Amino acid sequence: MFNRDKDKSSERIDLGAGLSLEITEGLRRKAILYRGNVRVKELDLADKVGKRLLVLEAVDLGARKSRLAGAFKMSRQTIHNYLETRKHFGLEGLIHGYSPGESKSLRKQREMHTEERIGGNKAKQLAEMRKASKQEEPRQVAMNFSFGDSGLKAGEREQPYSETHSWEPSRYAGVFAYLFPLIGRWKWLQLVMGHYGSGYKIFMVFLLMAARNIRSVEQLKNIRSREAGVVLGLGILPSRPKVWEWFYSAAKRESSKVLLRDYFWHQLRTGLVGLWLWFTDGHLLPYTGKKLVRSGYNTQRRMPEAGQTNMVTCDSSGRVVDFEIEEGKGDLRRRILEMGSKWAGEIGERPVMVFDREGHGAAFFSALVRDGIPFVTWEKHVDAAKLAEVDENRFHEEFEFNGKQYGVFEEERDYTHTLEDMPESPHGFKLRRIFIWNKSSRRRACGLAWDGGHEMSTADCARAILHRWGASENSFKHIQDRHPFHYRPGLKFVESERQEIDNPAIKEKQSLIQRIGATLNKLYKKLAKAREVLNKDGSARSNSVREQLKSAINEQESKLQEHQEERRQLPGKIDVSSLQDYRSFKRIDNEGKNLFDFVTCSVWNARKQMVDWLQPYFNQDNEAVDLFYAITSCHGWIESTERKVLVRLEPLRQPKRRRAQEQLCRKLTSLGVQTPTGKYLVIEVGESPL
């Protein structure tokens, strides 16, 4: 029997801004709107009202009108009329404005809503409005905007920095500096607006929070709304309920993974992050609510703690290359294997993976070697006494790192791992064993390396190990101090796919076995002290203390063997749904957290870049970071004209720091950064213009 409902799909039509449209032919024609490979909306083309709404939604997301008109076989004027109708008459005018000749059901619907809808031909009314506006108002110069100006088009009101105003003071003027590398080099605002349209506003609010270390949306109540709004290009920062509305509107799109993928891809393709050494580590995101969630591991407190683990990969300069939030403790080894091949199509030679002792193990090393992923790590379970006995003369190669002197040499170490699918042919491989001697602290350690053809020297391997775990652990302590790294805006819970727990019966059985073992130890001690008593014929007396102890020992040993066998037969993991006294695990949805961490990651990488630009003008490297934060915390004044947005920062007091501040501002201005509406961004240092 033939399937008459089977659709015949045509090729996707590119609409621009990452959008595409697919028209399926069949018994019922359908239109499917995609953003990248994510399905945004599906529509039955018989629904004419839905078709109009789909056209408007596509335009709001950035679709080109000409391509949209060609896809739906309509004129561009029709799409323009849809937009103008919604602007002047609202959705009611768009939905109820049917033309004559529709079916009976639609005619009945029109009759039911006659009093609600606006009568007349909408196209003629719009034409008359356009004609009247041309007669009454002279043609305006492009980009002549002012805040709240009724002459602005609907789309222009949604653009950042569309307002024009004279000089206004702002205590958040220093935050403006972050926009130069983000918009100019990372194409950050363009990326956000391409994915979220007018929803970019919540990202600008998050930018303020990350730059000024505002730890939650609730703390925005302490922010001067107008002073922050003009710096962020929003006019005025709205109240907290409106900010939450922006956040949930963006989170409901569920596009964070696509946004992050495009952001990380752009960094790699444009050389904004390094491709030589990649450091991967997990960082606990604690949860203190009442829901039952998986536990991560707090390395500072050395104990499990409810929460998630943020697996972050950085380059050698500390810039964030990629991150992913995992449920519970997270799997460092799986993450490193994924990163070894995730971006293989975008980069040439694979980066060298650097990780700590958590990844140590022959099975993991074997997987890395078989996948061709080079790595460097610490060696675990090293005998300190044997290291101390190594002759100092063997550390023939020396180098300096973080102001400390090191000596190194290397040997080879053989490893063998039996593969599950091929137990008859185990995998044998050799790793480089790097001996490191810190001459400043007189401490020694060992590392392991497999360079995969990178031809790394012994000193290069040692530097890779020490780069993140030398004088300080890593960058994330500094991120947490300077930025709200742990903040999670909003919490949404879903049922976790991981409902297994350690079998509690094993713990009970193990406790019983330990008690029997303790009883046996006492009996063994008593037996050793008991004197053997014999009958007259030389046989052991049956009712003696020694014989009673032997009988008790035999009884306890038989119980011990019985319970040990029962414990071996118990399953290691069980599903909580099979138990009565356990709640099911919940998983924290990461959509909102991904959006906030995207901004935090962007601000951190931009800070790294601007500190690099600042250092040539300020030769005290240990104070360059503090100077940068002093600059971005400066008060100032902002002016927005038709062609540029100008921020003037108050000068720092010390002449040397002020000169570095001026040079950084000149560097940022020289980038020639423009807003989506074409306004140039300018930043300078000077006295008050008021």
Task: List its traits.
globular, ten-stranded mixed β-sheet, single chain, alpha+beta, 690 residues, 22 helices, five-stranded antiparallel β-sheet
Number of strands: 23
Report how far apart the termini are. Answer: 82 Å
Q: C-alpha Rg, in Å? A: 34 Å
Biggest β-sheet, characterized?
10 strands, mixed
Discrete helix count: 22
Strand content: 15-25%
Structural class: alpha+beta
> What ranges have pLDDT less than 50 throughout 5 or more consecutive residues?
1-9, 98-104, 136-155
Shape: globular
Mean pLDDT: 84
The helix content is 40-55%
Count of discrete domains: 5
Précis, in short:
With 690 residues, this protein is of the alpha+beta class. Helix 2 packs across helix 3 and helix 9 (200-212) crosses helix 20 (591-614).
What does this structure look like?
This protein has 690 residues and is of the alpha+beta class. The chain has five domains: 125 residues, no CATH class; 193 residues, no CATH class; 104 residues; 110 residues, no CATH class; 85 residues. It is built from 22 helices and 23 strands. The strands form five sheets. Strands 7, 8, 9, 10, 11, 12, 13, 14, 15 and 16 form a ten-stranded mixed beta sheet that branches. Strand 8 and strand 9 form a beta hairpin. The radius of gyration is 34 Å and the shape is globular.
Topology of helices and strands:
Layout: E1 8-9, E2 13-16, E3 19-25, E4 30-35, E5 38-44, H1 48-60, H2 65-72, H3 76-96, H4 104-112, H5 122-136, H6 154-157, E6 165-170, H7 179-184, H8 188-196, H9 200-212, H10 225-232, H11 240-251, H12 256-269, E7 277-286, E8 295-298, E9 303-314, E10 320-327, H13 332-342, E11 352-355, H14 362-371, E12 375-378, H15 384-388, E13 397-401, E14 404-417, E15 427-438, E16 443-450, H16 458-469, H17 476-482, E17 493-495, E18 500-502, H18 504-529, H19 545-569, E19 573-575, E20 586-588, H20 591-614, H21 621-632, E21 636-640, E22 644-649, H22 655-669, E23 680-685
Parallel strand pairs: 7-11, 11-12, 22-23
Antiparallel strand pairs: 1-3, 2-3, 3-4, 4-5, 6-21, 7-9, 8-9, 9-10, 12-16, 13-14, 14-15, 15-16, 17-20, 18-19, 21-22
